[in-house]
Amino acid sequence: MSCVFAAHAEYDPETRLYVGTIPGLPGAHTQGATLDELRVNLQEVAELILEEQRSRGQSTEGRPVVRIQEIC
Fold it and tell me: What global pTM score does this model have?
């Protein structure tokens, strides 16, 4: 994949899985048992979404992520 996207990952203690999203790429979310698995899964999801966008003649530029911030 030639694009670079920022990803957000969290650990879900209930499922004991890492959950990840790519905020700049609508629909890009997945999970994995390890952070490495999550990274691979996110890359696969991103590639599928970008391939679909290309096949429809849509732009493959992701939306810019301005900031992810922790709030207490």
Answer: 0.80
